[in-house]
C-alpha cells in the first residue's frame, strides 16, 4: 500500500554505488543543460527568469519520491509555459506581484487536480485527447511560441497570446527594430540551427564517439548562453539597449503560500484543468515510450500523483506549473540516468546554481534565450503527421485542423477544448449512423460476408443483416429506419436475422426500438431473429422482457440461422 | 421537389367528400375538446389564457401545409408550456408586456431553429435524447407541473419553476388557503379522476358503443369547464374571491412582430433550443406511433420544417411555442381524422370561438383549469418505466435518475441538459474500457467463443483475442495495456490474433497504438495478426502504412488463423 503511493520504496532499497555513479553523472549534465531552458520558459510565461530555476528544484524532489518513471525529468516546459502565460495574462498585468501570486495559485490548482485525479484513478480522462488533437495542438503551439519569441529576437516590444494579435503587434512596432539585439538573436539562432543539423555528423567525422557527439550537439544552447553572456559583458550590450536577464536574486527559493481568493481561483480553474491534462499527456507519452525501451512499467494513476506532487511543490516554492519535459527527459535518459535519484541530483545542482551563480546570468541577453526556445520548439511542428492524418481519415484530420486553427487564432485553451469536443462529436455522429451490411454465405463455408463485396449465396425470403455498431440511444431510431426500409423494399421477406457480432451494448433506448421493430415486423408477417449475440449483451437482454416477446429465435451462429431458415415456410 | 417541402400537395389532389366528412367531424370534436387545455397551458406558461387559443389557430394552418403526419394535432402542450414559463420568468416579470413580447421571441427562435434543422436535415440531433432521459424528464416534469398547479387549486399565491421553490412558497402562503377555490378545485379534480377511472366502463355498461363512451370519457374536462363556469356565474364566485379567467378580448389573433433585441435573443437562445428539441421529440414519437398504426410514413426532417412553420406562425399571431400534443393528437385520431385538413377545420373552429364566444369564459374558475392540467399531467409519471430501466441497466437508470432529480430541484433546463450530457459521458466511458474476450474453438465447428463461457479448444502459444468495441482515441491506450498485460502473463506466447469482428472503426489514434503494439510485440518475439477485419475498416487501413509494417497476417476468418497458426513454429 505504502509502496503503491511512494514508488521510491520499490527502488531505493536496491540502490547501490553503481547506480549512484550513473545517476550523479546524469544529474550533473542535466543541471548544466536545463538552466538555459528553465530561464527561457519562465520568460515565455511572462515570469522573472529565476522562477524557472525555482521550479526546477523542489518539484524534482517531489517527483523523485512519488513518480513511477525511472528517467522522466520534471520542470518547466514550453507548452505549459505558454498556457501559463495565456492564463495569467487574463487575471493580472505581467510583472506585477499579482501575476506572480496567480502563477502560484495556478500551480496549486493544477497540482491538486492532478493528485485528486490520481487518487480517484481517473487517468483515463487523458485518453479523450486524441492523437490528432494533441498533434495539431503541439504543431500550432510550436508556431505560436516561435511567433511570440520574434519580438525578443528583433528587440521590439510586442505581445499577445494568439497568432493574430502577436503578428499585428509585431507589425505595429516593427520600426523599433533594435540592431544589436537582432544581431545577437539571429546569430544565436543560426548557430543553434547549424549545430542541430550539422553538429552530430561533423563531430562524428572528427572521430568523437557517437554518444559524446550527440551530447555535445545537445549542449549547443549551453555554449550559446556562455558565449553570448561573455560577449554581452565584454561589449557592454546592456548599456546599448540590448535586453539582458539582469540581476537575479541569489539564494534558495523562498517558501510561498498561494493566496486564497475565490474569484481568482474560479478564473484559473479551467486553465488549471487544461494545463493538468495537457501536461499529463505530454509527460505520460514520454514516460511510456522510455519505459517500453527498458521494459519497465509505469502506472498512469501514480504518475498523476507524482506530477501533482511536483506542482504542489512548485506552488509552495515560488515556482510555476511543471510537467515531464521532452528535451530534459531525453537529456537525462541519454546521459545514462538509471533511477529517479538523477532528478534529485539535478535538483541539488540547480539549487547550488541558484544559491551562488546567478550573478553570472546578469549579462545574458534575452534574445539568446528566445533563440533557444525557437529552435527547440519548431521541432513540435509535425508536418508528416499532418499529411498522414489527412491521408488516413478526413474525420480525424478535421479535428486536427480545427484544433490548429483555433489554437493559432483564439489561443491555446480555445484550441484544445474545441479539438476535444469536436472529436467526441464526430465519434458520436459516426456511431449514430452505423454501417450495416446484408450478408450471404461464402459457398462451401460457415462464413458470411457482405453481399456487395463478396460472391455469396443468398435466398430471397431471408435477410441476414449485420449491424456494425453497438445499439444505443443515438442510433436506435436509425436502426428502426433501416429495418423498416428493408422490409418495405422486399415484399417476399419472411425472416430477418440481426447479426449482432459487432453489437457490444444494447442500451434501454435500443431495447425499446428492438421491441417496436419486433412488434411491427410481426404485424407485417416478418419474423425477427437475432444471431451471434455476445455473452455480456445476452446477460443484459435476459433482464428485460424482450426475449419473451421476440417472435423469432436467438441463434448461436449465423450459420445455424441459415441452416434453419433457408427453406421458405410456404 | 415542391412536394417534398409542401407535403399538402401529395394528399390534397386526392381529397374527396368522404375524407372531408371525416375530417370535419374530427375537427369539430377537437375544437371543443382542446379549448380547456389551450387556456390551461397558456396560464401554466404565465401567459393570459387567450394566448393559448391564439396559438391554436395559425400554427395549425401552417402545420396543415407543411407537416407529413396525417393525424398529428399541433398546439400548446404541457411540457412546452412549463419550459416556456421557466424561460420567460428569467427575462421579464409575468404579466408585463415584456413577458408577452418574450413569448413571441421564444416562438420565433424556436420556429427558426426547427426549420433550419429541418432544412439542414439535422433530425438526428433528437436521437441524443435517450429514452431514459426523456422518460425521466417527463416523469419529473409531470410532478413539477402538478406541484405548480397546487397554488391554483388551493387559491393561494405561490410560484416558482423548481420543486423546492414551489413547495417552500406554498408552505409560506398556506395560511391564505381560500375555501371556495379549494372546493371548486378539489371537486373538479375528484370528478375528472372519477371519469378517467370509471367513465368508460360505466358508459359501456349503460350500453353505449365503445368508441362513443371513450370519447365521452375524454370529454370530461369539457363538462367540467361548462359546469364550473355555470356554477361560478350563478353563485357569483368571482366576487367571493375565486380567481376566474376574466375578460378575454374577443376577435381574431392580432398580427404581431417579435421585437429584435440582441440581449433578449441571446438569453432565450438555449431555452429555445431545448424547447425545440423536446417539442420535436414529443411530436415525432407520437407521429411515428400513429403512422405505424396506419402504415404511413413520416419524414423526420420535414416534420422539423412543419413544426418550425407552426412556431413561426405562433410568433406572428400573438401565440406561444407549440408542438404536436399527446392528448390532442389522440382525440384527433380517435375522432376519425384522415388528413391534416382536420387540423385546418379545428383552426377555423377555434377561430370562431375566439371571435365570438370568449365572453362565456369570463366566469370559468382558474382552479378548474388547474384540475384539468393536474389530471392530464400525472399520466406522464411513468413508474413502470422507471422500474424497468432500473432492472435493465444501472447506467441508463443513473442518467434517468439524474435527469429527474435535477429537473425537480434545478428546473427543466438543467434537468434535460445534464441528462443528455451524462448519457453521452456514460457511453464514452463505457466505450473507453472495452470488453474483450480470449476465444477458443468450439470443437468440431468453425465457430469461436469466449473461453470463459464455453468449452473450447485452445493452444498455449496462440492467443485469439476478440475486441468488443470500435478502436478510437478514448480506448487506444486501454488496448495497449490489455495486450501488453496479455503478453507479459503468457511467456510461451508466439502469436496474438486480434479478432476485429466487432471493430467498426479504427481511427488515427488507435492506428498509432496498433503500430506501437506491433513494434513492441515484435521486440518480444510475438507476432501480431488481425482477423475478420471488415471491409470498410480494411479500406481505411490500406490508406496507411500499417499493413506493410504488420509482422503477421490479416486472416479472413478466425478459423483460417486457427488452421494456420495452431502448430507451434519451434
Automatic annotation (TrEMBL), chains A, B:
Lineage: Bacteria, Pseudomonadati, Pseudomonadota, Gammaproteobacteria, Oceanospirillales
Gene3D superfamilies, per database record: STAS domain (3.30.750.24)
Cellular component terms (Gene Ontology): membrane
Keywords: Membrane, Transmembrane, Transmembrane helix
Record-linked CDD domains: STAS_SulP_like_sulfate_transporter
Membrane topology: Multi-pass membrane protein
Stretches that traverse the bilayer: 21-43, 49-66, 73-92, 98-120, 132-154, 177-195, 215-235, 268-292, 304-322, 342-362, 369-387, 399-429
Organism name: Halomonas nitroreducens
PROSITE patterns (alphabetical): STAS
PANTHER family given in the database record: SULFATE TRANSPORTER
Pfam families reported in the protein's UniProt record: STAS (PF01740), Sulfate_transp (PF00916)
Protein name: Sulfate permease
Domain STAS positions: 452-570
GO biological process, one term: transmembrane transport
Amino acid at each position: 500500500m505504502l509502496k503503491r503511493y511512494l514508488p521510491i520504496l520499490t527502488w531505493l532499497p536496491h540502490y547501490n554505488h553503481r547506480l549512484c555513479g550513473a545517476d550523479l553523472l546524469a544529474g550533473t549534465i542535466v543541471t548544466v543543460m536545463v538552466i538555459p531552458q528553465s530561464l527561457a520558459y519562465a520568460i515565455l510565461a511572462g515570469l522573472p527568469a529565476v522562477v524557472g530555476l525555482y521550479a526546477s528544484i523542489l518539484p524534482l524532489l517531489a517527483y523523485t519520491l512519488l513518480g513511477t518513471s525511472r528517467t522522466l525529468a520534471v520542470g518547466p516546459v514550453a507548452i505549459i509555459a505558454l498556457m501559463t502565460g495565456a492564463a495569467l495574462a487574463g487575471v493580472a498585468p505581467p510583472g506585477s506581484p499579482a501575476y506572480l501570486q496567480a502563477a502560484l495559485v495556478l500551480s496549486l490548482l493544477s497540482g491538486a487536480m492532478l493528485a485528486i485525479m490520481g487518487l480517484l484513478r481517473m487517468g483515463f480522462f487523458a485518453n479523450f485527447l486524441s492523437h490528432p488533437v494533441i498533434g495539431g495542438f503541439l504543431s500550432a503551439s510550436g508556431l505560436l511560441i516561435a511567433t511570440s519569441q520574434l519580438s525578443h529576437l528583433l528587440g521590439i516590444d510586442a505581445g499577445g497570446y494568439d497568432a493574430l494579435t502577436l503578428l499585428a503587434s509585431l507589425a505595429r512596432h516593427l520600426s523599433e527594430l533594435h540592431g544589436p539585439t537582432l544581431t545577437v538573436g539571429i546569430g544565436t539562432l543560426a548557430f543553434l540551427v547549424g549545430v542541430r543539423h550539422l553538429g552530430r555528423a561533423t563531430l562524428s567525422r572528427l572521430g568523437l564517439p557517437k554518444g559524446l557527439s550527440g551530447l555535445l550537439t545537445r549542449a549547443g544552447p549551453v555554449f550559446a548562453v556562455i558565449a553570448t553572456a561573455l560577449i554581452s559583458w565584454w561589449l557592454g550590450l546592456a548599456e546599448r539597449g540590448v535586453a539582458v536577464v539582469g540581476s537575479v536574486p541569489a539564494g534558495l527559493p523562498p517558501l510561498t503560500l498561494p493566496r486564497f481568493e475565490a474569484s481568482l481561483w474560479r478564473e484559473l480553474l479551467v486553465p488549471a484543468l487544461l494545463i493538468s491534462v495537457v501536461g499529463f499527456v505530454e509527460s505520460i507519452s514520454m514516460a511510456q515510450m522510455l519505459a517500453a525501451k527498458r521494459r519497465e512499467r509505469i502506472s498512469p494513476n501514480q504518475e498523476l500523483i507524482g506530477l501533482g506532487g511536483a506542482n504542489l511543490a512548485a506552488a509552495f516554492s515560488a515556482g510555476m506549473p511543471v510537467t515531464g519535459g521532452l528535451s530534459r527527459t531525453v537529456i537525462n535518459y541519454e546521459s545514462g540516468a538509471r533511477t529517479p535519484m538523477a532528478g534529485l541530483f539535478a535538483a541539488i545542482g540547480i539549487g547550488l546554481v541558484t544559491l551562488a551563480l546567478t550573478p553570472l546570468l546578469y549579462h545574458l541577453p534575452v534574445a539568446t534565450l528566445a533563440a533557444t526556445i525557437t529552435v527547440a520548439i519548431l521541432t513540435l511542428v509535425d508536418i508528416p503527421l499532418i499529411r498522414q492524418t489527412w491521408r488516413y481519415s478526413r474525420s480525424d484530420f478535421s479535428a486536427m485542423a480545427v484544433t490548429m486553427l483555433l489554437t493559432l487564432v483564439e489561443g491555446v485553451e480555445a484550441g484544445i477544448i474545441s479539438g476535444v469536443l469536436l472529436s467526441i462529436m464526430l465519434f458520436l455522429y459516426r456511431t449514430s449512423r452505423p454501417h450495416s451490411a446484408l450478408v450471404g454465405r461464402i459457398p462451401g463455408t460457415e462464413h458470411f460476408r457482405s453481399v456487395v463485396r463478396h460472391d455469396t449465396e443468398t435466398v430471397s425470403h431471408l435477410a441476414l443483416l449485420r449491424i456494425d455498431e453497438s445499439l444505443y440511444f443515438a442510433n436506435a431510431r436509425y436502426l428502426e429506419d433501416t429495418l423498416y426500409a428493408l422490409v418495405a423494399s422486399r415484399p417476399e421477406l419472411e425472416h430477418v436475422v440481426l447479426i449482432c457480432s459487432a453489437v457490444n451494448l444494447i442500451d434501454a433506448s435500443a431495447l425499446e426500438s428492438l421491441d417496436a421493430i419486433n412488434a411491427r415486423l410481426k404485424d407485417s408477417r416478418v419474423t425477427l431473429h437475432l444471431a451471434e449475440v455476445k455473452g455480456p449483451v445476452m446477460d443484459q437482454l435476459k433482464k428485460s422482457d424482450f426475449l419473451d416477446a421476440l417472435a423469432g429465435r436467438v441463434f448461436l451462429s449465423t450459420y445455424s440461422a441459415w441452416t434453419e431458415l433457408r427453406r421458405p415456410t410456404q
